[in-house]
Amino acid sequence: MVAEDMGQPDPPAPGLPAEPATRPGPVPVTVIRAGRTRVFPDLAELWRHREVVYFLVWRNLKVKYRQTHIGVAWVVLQPLITVAVFTFIFGRLVGVPTGDVPYALFALAGLVPWNYFASTVNGMTSSLVDHQEMIRRVYFPRLAIPLAILITALVDLAIGFVIIALALVVFGVVPPIQAVLLPFFLLQMMATALGIGLFVSASNVRYRDVGYIVPFAVQTLLFLTPVVYPSDLLPAAVRPVAGLNPMAGVLEGLRWCLFDTPPSFAAIALSLAVTAALLAIGLAWFARTERGFADVI
User: Fold this and answer.
1) Which of 192, 272, 229, 278 is nearest to 101 (CA)?
2) Count of alpha carbons within 13 Å of 40, Cβ hemisphere only?
């Protein structure tokens, strides 16, 4: 008689590996839960996805200059042609006073930062809608899209300041010692554009009318900001509150750094407070609406 051993597993077939002595444990299960609503976007998460920002910036640059015959030269021609027109109208015909600073140089120092601000805000406004397929299909911090617009425009800004530097040499103007504070006002300009751009880009996802209002509002704001005229021409009753327009304070500071023109420190301080408020509001509004982009867009 052959005894049956009911408690032992069957021996493996010839040529096949033996089964492991212990069976594998339970398969791990990943549970995805909705995170808490943040007051501001998660900057740590944005840093972990920084490659997305790099990709978007590189793609924006290629799209901007693809199939253009003169490429980057457009960045040079645009401010020069605009300055020539404004110099003829406001410098020659109207005779806007700019002190010891040549009007062409005065206007150039205002148009270069203004063009950065305007192009950034206008680009951010439609940025989320333009990337709606990407938002629907892939998860990544949505802040990367408008932030890429902000960074891409820095290329044009850098070229514009090279033009300003050459113009300073041509007109024989030596910047004063406070020129070292120039990066501070450039950061304020970027913060202003970012705060406004985040607010309008998030709003444009739900209310598409924003995409039509913003370009018109930016164009109107050009003539309400001392871009092609000094702030001294503003009525005396308006000057104390001129800083409510943050770009007015930015341009005051930039011209003070470049030409040593008499600044209004009260307007600059007020513009700094407005910039901080705009940046906080833009970040908070973007964080509040970000979770619904994929459903609404």
Assistant:
1) 229
2) 9
* Residue that has been written with the tokens 């940046």 in this structure: 279
CB 262 within 8 A of CB 200: no
What's the pLDDT tens digit per position in 83-109?
A: 999 999 988 888 888 888 999 999 999
The average pLDDT across 118-127 equals: 95
- Cα–Cα distances (Å) from 84 to 79, 90, 135, in that order, read 8, 10, 42
CA–CA gap between residue 59 and residue 52 (Å, rounded): 11
Of 63, 111, 59, the closest CA to residue 85 belongs to 111
Residue 123 structure tokens? 């680009």
The span from the CA of 145 to the CA of 124, in Å, is 8
* Widest distance between CA atoms in the chain: 122
**Euclidean distance between CA atoms 17 and 15, whole angstroms:** 7
Whole-angstrom distance, CA of residue 76 vs CA of residue 81: 9
Length of the chain: 297
